Amino acid sequence: MKFFSEVNLPTSNYKLDYSSQILLLGSCFATHIHDQLSYYQFQAKANPFGVLFHPKAILKTIELAAGYRQDFELIEHDGLHHSFLAHSSLSASTQDEVIHQLETSTEVLRQALQHSTLIFISLGTAWYYSRQINSAFVANCHKIPSKEFAKHLSSVAELKQDLTKIVRLVNKLNPESKLVFTVSPVKHLKDGLVENSRSKAHLIAAVHEFIDESEHDLMYFPSYELLVDELRDYRFYKPDLAHPSLSAVKFIWEKFKSVYIDQSTLEVMNQVEAIQKGLHHKAFNPQSEAHQKFMANLEVKISQLKQKFPHMNFINS
């Protein structure tokens, strides 16, 4: 007897290896996957403009990187300078500092888009805010009073337009890159559960219609479905009941590996994991001869891997 339904995973001829350049954009779920890739020493970058939830927010930063947009849309509030195009992690106490960070992020994103072999885009919500004063879209409200914004739900057609522009720009910058879209399983409880469901439904419909109609070789990875339909239970969420727990992230990561990573790369990942566990092992007696031999052996393994993969950078190595 089966007690749960399994999500059918996609097949992919494209596989990641340690020469791959990986860019992850979008919601905080992209950060979760980036953390796993970084742990295993892949060459990965995530969200130069911070976490962004709506496809249009992702699009606007790509437009900056592609040179199609010059205005950072700055505003000062409560002693800090912010950009309506970026996450508050890029905010600063002076306008010059925030502009410097935004210019740096623009260049980092431009380089990553031009050189990435895989671009993973996690879509978080179809809800967005616009400024009351000029109806301009904002990626982040930066805790500015809500009366200054209007809330909207993007239609499936509007979302498809954003996705079309994203893919067009990415292909102009880097026609060889592979794109993987996913819908984040993180629940936006502040919107309300009904509103969250409406949002996710719009995203899922939009991304599937877009991929089905696109002439480009695009992929969909079912992160949302793996948590909501396969794991299902609240024990797979953090105490906030919105974000996936570590065990849920690990479960989805294992599914990601099964689709996008081949056996030879998995063997190297096993070596990396053994080193990571060794480096983070807390010795009962760090000065003992046994532990010193253990650490010396670990250094040899690190050196051997670095000879093959110079980009690897282990903590304590």
**H-E string:** EHEHEEHEEEEHEHEHHHH
Low-confidence stretches: none
Strand content: 5-15%
Query: Would you identify the CATH architecture of the largest domain?
Result: 3-Layer(aba) Sandwich
How many domain regions? 2
**Full CATH superfamily name of the largest domain:** SGNH hydrolase
Structural description of this entry:
By secondary structure, the protein is of the alpha/beta class. The chain contains 9 helices and 10 strands. It has helices at 28-39, 55-66, 95-115, 156-173, 193-213, 223-231, 246-260, 263-279, 289-308; strands at residues 21-26, 43-46, 74-77, 80-83, 118-123, 127-131, 137-138, 149-153, 178-183, 218-220. The radius of gyration is 21 Å and the shape is globular. The protein starts with 20 loop residues before the first strand and ends in a 9-residue tail after the last helix.
